[in-house]
From TrEMBL, chain B:
PANTHER family: D,D-DIPEPTIDE TRANSPORT SYSTEM PERMEASE PROTEIN DDPC-RELATED, OLIGOPEPTIDE TRANSPORT SYSTEM PERMEASE PROTEIN APPC
Taxonomic lineage from the root: Bacteria, Bacillati, Actinomycetota, Actinomycetes, Kitasatosporales
GO CC terms, sorted: plasma membrane
UniProt GO BP: transmembrane transport
Protein's cellular compartments: Cell membrane
Signal peptide: none
InterPro entries documented for this protein: BP-dependent_transpt_permease, MetI-like, MetI-like_sf, OppC_N
Domain ABC transmembrane type-1: 94-284
UniProt keyword terms in alphabetical order: Cell membrane, Membrane, Transmembrane, Transmembrane helix, Transport
UniProt similarity note: Belongs to the binding-protein-dependent transport system permease family.
Key word Chaperone present: no
Protein name: ABC transporter permease
Keyword Repeat: no
Topology with respect to the bilayer: Multi-pass membrane protein
Length: 700, 298
């Protein structure tokens, strides 16, 4: 193994905090050949970022390497032996960072300096690491920016980070990491903060650059879809240790460690039948303050025996897996029988599917619009500065009682604004919202107060939605107090019932919100939303901040509660897989417009709008063999302050023609009733234009 | 299924955790400087309010036979030019200073907090109108205002408290308004509005409690400032008339005798003012740190 570029041997990292020590990494062994791409996956807190940071000697305050070696091949062009980065002095590390090892961080906004032009920032590593003049560095920086797909790099170099979009900023960050032509690129969740389509572009870019520059890469991510087709080998981490290590195909085809297996099973993409509940991993990841004796996954593992709880499994291979180098630390590995659905064993028996929403319309939106003045403040309007942002532009849809209506779209498409208008946090600037047959704009103050009981919002960040100074009992009692429901004893009884419903211990009432984990807080958020027994719950990205295994718990819980309480959900998400799993009907939004709506299975199976098609083609399927179908979306979403004329999607549409620029497309139902699309040239099975006679009308 | 799993992994979930107030105190107690400040303040309070029980003196009648005695004998800190025992007068004057300072500081904080929270939460023209009032009031120099008002009405303790509070509420009002502006867009305020809750609940149940750190820290500084204002006013001779006393008027009276070298008339009240103001400032700093960390996980 002398030809490896990076070899991590038995790495231990501890982080000393206030009065306690976290054993962040506990014996990590990794090996990376030149030009190879390694994916590190795991849930938050499993140590994957710590592994990446320790390679660069950038551990956070209080963190230090307490054992093991990080051997990095000597500097390019010399015959030095490998350098031990764990023991190397700071000047050596400084020479390596940004030079032979480049790093891309998650948030491109905070990893760029807002006061420097992007040109200066991309040129900076060159000036630090090579003997070149400012002019040469500037030239090389422009070249690198062109390489990462920055349009007109020479002009853009004089821009500041805030003048670029998120995707462009991440391109700049990548250019900074690549400008010295490193031999190793470490990318820590490089696309997590980006939209699906941008994410795809960035991943493609990294792929292509890796090929062209022949560099090795470590891709750290929580998203199994991201690594599936981007890396050669994968290391699955759990609780500060490596649970399983394998080439990407064997890992996805036959995961052996029970944790890996459960992780795959929890993916909404893998639950092909939307009526089935997702497989979940009960409980929470370990805290790493103590070092448990046995297997770290044992407390959450359905196959754990006493042996697992007392003895720590080593990374081993067995003859069952054909591929070489497929090792796992598990005493009771999953059966790698070929052709078997790896998720089948752990999926619990499914209860009957909930009845799809066939009831009467509960919520009806007619041409709902929201525009914001671009310059706020009391004086702006008087001056008549006409600039406006059209966040939502004429949305019409109907949600039936008992169904889950999913709204999907990229960030900035107006889906959250729509949700806020439905719950009444914001008033629409156009159109009407009817709830249970009544226009909510005409409700008196008193009726509105009563109406509040019927419509509740489930927030994306439950922690932010709870007063941090209130105990859970006060948080859950507040809606009851405001609405004057019951006396104290009755309220306490209801709160206990709510906690039972969402699967939290009743003792939780005496704790503060910050003492709960993300998934538990989301349960609390759901409990509070249900306190007033609403008929409609608007869920705004309720699971997007959660790890996969916890996300599955929450999605199952929402589904169970819907069945038990007859809830209607308006489910807002950017995650197509989650919406596909949960929703009965979907609406696809683009730049404030609803471009397509219909039954979920129809829309996902046979999308009519090019945007929906593009979104589906762009999704990173967690399957290394998935062929890239069709054409993923290119370009970026235009600004809502100056939306394109005619069809708003035309600037990115592969099928756009002259008509699209001049006329707004009518809403038609070209194939099946109820599946509506707003497009001049929908993707029907017939050639565009002469399909079934379009039935014009608002989407309902 | 998941219920049992949560119970199993979190056996401590059933236990109540210490209240926020208790945790704040724990962090505060770890700050040596703040703790010293608190002890100094307690000492001064005991000195002023319990001291006269141990060292009773006549602070009403002048006794010119005992005028301007140097420290020693029956008068540990000497006597004033009118024959009052200085140690006793320091206690007696301290009562006025502390009472007026505390009351004025608290009154200003209370009013300013509510005013600022209301302006910040409701925003729009309510905010604009309310804040223009504070801007206008702030444009008038505080000392000038105090002098004018004190010259018109004869000061007594309640009058003094009102005068000082009427100047001092402006800065907490602006401070809390800023906090309220940030807090009102928090999701938990949205959540409360969605439950049907109104402005009163938002201001008193959510905004003020969540700004409480800022409020309390500011209150300690307000009290320190108010004690200084009392001293300014009395130094200018605009305080409660004799035979009442406070530290400021004692300082003012002592200044006359600097040339003669009656140092005991100046240092004791001067040191007392410095001590109490410093103590309140240390407490304020300590509280600020305590409020900062207590919502983090430990």
């Amino acid at each position: 193994m002398t030809d490896s570029l990076l070899r991590i041997e038995d790495l231990h990292v501890e982080i000393a905090g206030r009065g306690r020590t976290v054993h962040a990494l506990d014996g990590i062994d990794l090996d990376l050949a030149p030009g190879e791409a390694l994916g590190i996956v795991g849930e938050s807190g499993c140590g994957k970022t710590m592994t990446a940071l320790s390679v660069l000697g950038l551990l956070p305050g209080g963190g230090k390497v307490t054992g093991g070696r990080i051997l990095f091949d000597g500097p390019r062009g010399t015959a030095d032996g490998p350098t031990d980065l764990a023991a190397a002095p700071e000047p050596v590390l400084r020479d390596i960072r940004g030079n032979t090892i480049g790093m891309v961080f998650q948030d491109p906004l905070t990893s760029l300096n807002p006061t420097l032009t992007i040109g200066a920032q991309v040129a900076e590593p060159l000036l630090l690491h090579t003997r070149c003049t400012k002019a040469e560095a500037w030239e090389k920086a422009a070249e690198t920016l062109r390489l990462v797909g920055m349009p007109r790099p020479a002009e853009r170099m004089k821009n500041y980070p805030h003048q670029l979009s998120g995707g462009m900023r991440q391109r700049v960050a990548i250019a900074m990491a690549l400008v010295c032509e490193p031999r190793l690129l470490i990318a820590d969740e490089p696309t997590t903060a980006l939209d699906v389509t941008t994410q795809h572009q960035i991943l493609e870019l990294i792929d292509e650059l890796r090929e062209r520059l022949g560099m090795a890469m470590i891709l750290v991510t929580h998203d199994l879809g991201v690594i599936a087709r981007r890396v050669d080998r994968v290391a699955v981490m759990y609780g500060g240790k490596i649970a399983e290590r394998a080439a990407v195909r064997p890992l996805f085809a036959t995961p052996r460690h029970r944790y890996t297996q459960a992780l795959f099973a929890a993916l909404p993409e893998r639950a092909t039948d939307g009526a089935q509940p997702l497989a979940t991993i009960p409980g929470l990841p370990p805290s790493l303050v103590t070092r448990p004796a046995g297997c770290r996954f044992a407390p959450r593992c359905g196959f754990a025996t006493d042996h697992c709880r007392t003895t720590e499994p080593e990374l081993t291979a067995d003859g069952a897996t054909g591929a070489a180098g497929h090792t796992f630390a598990c005493f009771h590995p999953a059966d790698p029988a070929p052709g078997q659905d790896p998720t089948a064993e752990v999926r619990p028996a499914a209860p009957a599917a909930p009845p799809a929403g066939t009831g009467e319309p509960l919520l009806r939106l007619d041409g709902v619009a929201k525009t914001y003045p671009l310059h706020g403040g009391p004086f702006a309007r008087r001056r008549g500065a006409g600039a406006e942002v059209s966040a939502v532009a004429g949305i019409s849809l109907t949600v039936r009682r008992g169904e889950t209506f999913g709204i999907v779209g990229e960030s900035g498409c107006g889906k959250s604004t729509l949700g806020r208008m439905v719950v009444g946090l914001e008033a629409p600037t156009g159109g009407t919202i009817h709830f249970a047959g009544r226009d909510i704009a005409t409700l008196t103050k008193r009726e509105l107060r009563a109406h509040r009981r019927d419509v509740q919002l489930m927030f994306q960040d439950s922690y932010a939605s709870m007063d941090p100074r209130m105990r859970v009992s006060a948080v859950l009692r507040e809606p009851l107090v405001i609405q004057g429901i019951g006396d104290r004893a009755e309220q306490a009884r209801r709160i206990a019932g709510l906690l039972d419903d969402v699967g939290l211990p009743r003792g939780a009432v005496d704790r503060y919100p910050h003492e709960f984990s993300g998934g538990q807080r989301q349960r609390l958020g759901l409990a509070r939303a249900l306190a007033l027994s609403p008929s409609l719950v608007v869920a705004d990205e309720p699971v997007s901040a959660l790890d996969v295994s916890v996300q599955a718990q929450i999605l199952n819980l929402m589904r169970d509660l819907q069945r038990d309480k007859g809830l209607t959900y308006l489910f807002i998400s950017h995650d197509l897989a989650v919406v596909r799993h949960l929703a009965d009907s979907v609406g696809v939004m683009y730049l404030g417009k609803l471009v397509e709506t219909g039954p979920a299975e129809r829309v996902f199976a046979r999308p009519l709008h090019p945007y929906t098609r593009g979104l589906l083609d762009t999704v990173n399927a967690p399957d290394p063999d998935a062929e890239q179908a069709g054409t993923p979306l290119g370009g970026e979403t235009p600004s809502a302050a100056a939306p394109p004329s005619g069809c708003r999607f035309r600037t990115r549409c592969p099928a756009a023609r002259e008509l699209c620029a001049t006329t707004e497309p009518p809403v038609t139902e070209p194939e099946t009733p109820g599946h509506r699309v707003a497009c001049h040239f929908p993707l029907t099975s017939e050639p565009a234009g002469d399909g079934a006679a379009p039935t014009a009308g608002p989407i309902q | 299924m998941t219920t049992t799993a949560l119970d199993a992994t979190q056996p401590e979930a059933a236990l109540a955790t210490p209240s926020l107030a208790r945790r704040t105190l724990t962090v505060f107690a770890r700050n040596k400087l703040a703790l010293t400040g608190a002890l100094v303040l307690l000492g001064l309070l005991a000195f002023c309010f319990l001291g006269p029980l141990i060292h009773p003196t006549d602070q009403i009648h002048t006794d010119l036979t005992q005028a301007s005695l140097a420290p020693g004998g029956a008068h540990p800190l000497g006597t004033t030019d009118l024959g009052y025992d200085l140690l006793g007068r320091l206690m007696y004057g301290g009562q006025t200073s502390l009472e007026v300072g505390l009351a004025a500081g608290l009154l200003a904080t209370l009013f300013g907090t509510v005013y600022g929270a209301v302006a910040g939460y409701f925003g729009g023209w309510v905010d604009a109108a309310m804040m223009r009032v504070t801007d206008a009031a702030l444009a008038i120099p505080a000392l000038f205002l105090l002098v004018v008002v004190a010259a018109i009405v004869t000061p007594s303790k309640p009058v003094l408290i009102l005068i000082i509070a009427s100047v001092a509420w402006l800065s907490p009002a602006r401070l809390i308004r800023g906090e309220a502006l940030a807090l009102r867009s928090r999701d938990y305020i949205h959540a409360m509005r969605l439950m049907g809750g109104g402005g009163g609940r938002a201001v008193f149940r959510h905004i003020v409690p969540n700004a409480i750190g800022t409020v309390i820290v500011n209150a300690t500084f307000q009290i320190a400032d108010a004690i200084l204002y009392v001293a300014y006013l009395s130094f200018l001779g605009l305080s409660i008339p004799p035979p009442a006393a406070d530290w400021g008027s004692m300082l003012s009276a002592g200044i006359t005798y600097t040339q003669v070298g009656y140092w005991w008339l100046i240092f004791p009240p001067g040191i007392a003012i410095v001590l109490v103001v410093a103590a309140f400032n240390f407490i304020g700093d300590g509280l600020r740190d305590a409020f900062d960390v207590r919502l983090t996980k430990n």
